[in-house]
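Journal club prep, notes for RB
We'll compare a predicted complex against what the paper describes. Inputs for the zinc ion case:
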Amino acid sequence: MVSRRILLGALMGVAAPALAFAEGDGPAKPSLLTRKGRRTSSALKHQAGDKAALDQAMAKVKPMEAEPAPAPEAHAASPQEVTPDEALGRLKQGNTIFSRGGANLMLPTLARVAELSKGQKPFAVVIGCADSRTAPELIFDCNLGELFVIRVAGSTVSREGLGSIVYAVEHLGAPLIVVLGHTKCGAVGAAVDVATKHAELHGALHEMVLPIIPAVLEAQEGHPADLQDAAIRRNVRDIAGRLKVADGVLAEKLEEGRLKIVSATYDLTTGVVGFDA
Ligand SMILES: [Zn+2]
């Protein structure tokens, strides 16, 4: 026999478990419901088959997703709830889960969306490449509202990007900045071609690779077997180094131990992020 819960859920066009009523085929189970929910349940017994009445009654039952979210004050009680090392530990743990194939595939609940509409408190800023295979929320097994992400091909930081970073640190209290590159980065590869083969890129593409050229030249000095790979790692280390002195707010937080800036490289093949700290 099909559960009434499933039938009613199907009639309403919503997933049955999302509905807050406790009626099954067997003996009455302990109700998780409000009084209103029980009244609705009782009424339904007398109106089975009458879909209009059913719909009307069901409209009074609140989906569990719509439960009130916690007060935003509770979410943002302290400006510094997570230390830089704790934030780094979370990212490392999240990537370990992802690279072992155990990433959380659950989409954010509506309750979480509602909660986040009242404010955000990301625990890390990630400066990443725009490459579609390197989405930070996925590779660090994070949810909405946890990462403040700036992404440009080549993981470079423009003046506007720096402003975004400072905003996240100063106003949102993010205690960690990660500059994330990745293996086989096409933008760095293009910069290598420009620097070593005098390749020419037009317009905005040229401007995109220009900030990466110094890292290519530095990497070249070490005569690496794989210049592109060496330049990728050099590039993120250089950017992290420059960020440490790029803005007074960041410098002050670093000095106070309330901020950490680290570089890292994501391996497209293994899914593992190698941190330089
Ligand atoms: Zn890339």
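Talking point for the session: The first helix runs from residue 4 to 12.
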